[in-house]
Amino acid sequence: MVITVSYVSTTEAAFLLNISTGRLRLLLNQKRVIGANKVGRRWMMPLNARGMPEIIPGTRGPEGTWNKNNRTANTFVHVLRKTIDYNRENGTSHPAVAVKVGDKKDYCHALKIHGPCQIVYQPHQPNRSQAGGARLWIEVEPQHIVERVYFSGGDYGPPPEVVQQRARFEKKK
Predict the structure, then answer these.
(1) I want to staple 45 with a disulfide (CB 3.0 to 4.6 A). Which of 29, 36, 87, 130 is the partner?
(2) Count of H helices and E strands in the chain?
(3) How far are the Cα atoms of 86, 98, 105, 107 from residue 125, in angstroms, in the given order?
(4) Cβ(116)–Cβ(110) under 8 Å?
(5) Which of 9, 26, 32, 25 is CA-nearest to residue 112?
């Protein structure tokens, strides 16, 4: 029997643990992430049997609040068509893939889905609860890992369409 170990980057590990990347970097510098090693300028962390990075508990202060359990919500993946159009027209490279797990949303340039998934197209029943009215999305069950990929020369943060939507929402308040 061959055991393979999956490794994730800082951004993916922070997403899995439900903590900020800054907090994760602090844990890495304190050598509290089991099996973490630096490859070039990037930290790579192994995943345990539950698909989570292992953190050594601290000796002082409150107990860590990072996510220790498997995710229970499906992962929804959306391709942001308006961001693709914006990138083409303006020569930018904002992330055009939105990944939503529960109520947390993340943006990236590419995905590697480790396990089965399904593409759902519902033209007459948009997914308003998870996708803000999307008619096409990819759905991944919670036990499967969705590894996010970021291009080194890319623009990070929310894409322009999301920034504009948030601005409109703030004006209404």
Answers:
(1) 36
(2) 5, 10
(3) 27, 20, 22, 24
(4) no
(5) 9
Supply the pLDDT for residue 146.
77
Phi, psi of 121, rounded to the nearest 5 degrees:
-125, 115
Rg (CA), the chain: 18
User: Residue 8: beta bridge partners?
Assistant: 45
pLDDT of 28: 92
Can you tell me the distance from the alpha carbon of 107 to that of 98, in angstroms, rounded to the nearest whole number?
A: 5
Distance between CA atoms of residues 101 and 28, nearest Å: 25
The two three-digit tokens of residue 36, written as one number: 């973490």
CA atoms within 13 A on the CB side of 28: 21
pTM of structure: 0.56
Distance CA(103)–CA(125), nearest Å, equals 21
What are residue 107's DSSP bridge partners? 98
**With contact defined as beta carbons under 8 Å apart, do 12 and 148 qualify?**
yes
Give the strand pairing for 110-114 and 145-149: antiparallel
- Bigger pLDDT: 173 vs 168: 168
Mean pLDDT for 87-99 is: 84
Average pLDDT over residues 143-158: 68
* Residue 28: its H or E element: helix 21-29
